[in-house]
Amino acid sequence: GGPRPHACGDCGKSFRESATLRRHQRIHTGEKPYGCPECGRSFRASSTLVIHRRLHTGEKPYGCPGCPRRF
């Protein structure tokens, strides 16, 4: 892996990038800055909000290669 110079002051886990450390620290702080405008549920990571919003839009971006079903 490479050097991991960004260490969490709470648990000691280390990360390569400072942005990854900041996202990790939300586990300890409980911060969930990404809120769903549809239902108000909040998430620690924007990527989790993107996945959640598919519940409201009905988007199913993944197709099964063996059948016509989408997920």
Keyword list:
single chain, 71 residues, alpha+beta, Double Stranded RNA Binding Domain, two-stranded antiparallel ribbon, 11% strand, flat
Give an account of the 3D structure.
The structure is a single chain. The protein is of the alpha+beta class and 71 residues long. The chain is built from two helices and four strands. The model has no long low-confidence stretch (mean pLDDT 97). It has helices at 18-29, 46-57, and strands at residues 6-7, 14-15, 34-35, 42-43. It is flat and about 45 Å long. The protein folds into two domains: 1-31, Double Stranded RNA Binding Domain; 32-62. Strands 1-2 form a two-stranded antiparallel ribbon. Strand 1 (6-7) and strand 2 (14-15) form a beta hairpin. Residues 6-33, 34-61 form the C2H2-type domain.
Label the CATH architecture of the largest domain.
2-Layer Sandwich
The whole-number mean of residue pLDDT values reads 97
SS element count, helices: 2
Global Rg: 17 Å
Strand content: 5-15%
Tell me the number of strands. 4
* Shape assignment: flat
- Major sheet, described briefly? 2 strands, antiparallel
Share of residues in helices: 25-40%
- What's the CATH topology label of the largest domain? Double Stranded RNA Binding Domain
The CATH class of the largest domain is identified as Alpha Beta
Q: What is the total domain count?
A: 2
Question: Stretches where pLDDT falls below 50 for ≥5 residues?
Answer: none
Distance between the termini: 33 Å
| Run of helices and strands | EEHEEH
Structural classification: alpha+beta
Give, in spatial order, the strands making up the sheet with the most strands: 1-2
Keywords: DNA-binding, Metal-binding, Nucleus, Repeat, Transcription, Transcription regulation, Zinc, Zinc-finger
Family: Belongs to the krueppel C2H2-type zinc-finger protein family.
Protein name: ZN552 protein
Subcellular location: Nucleus
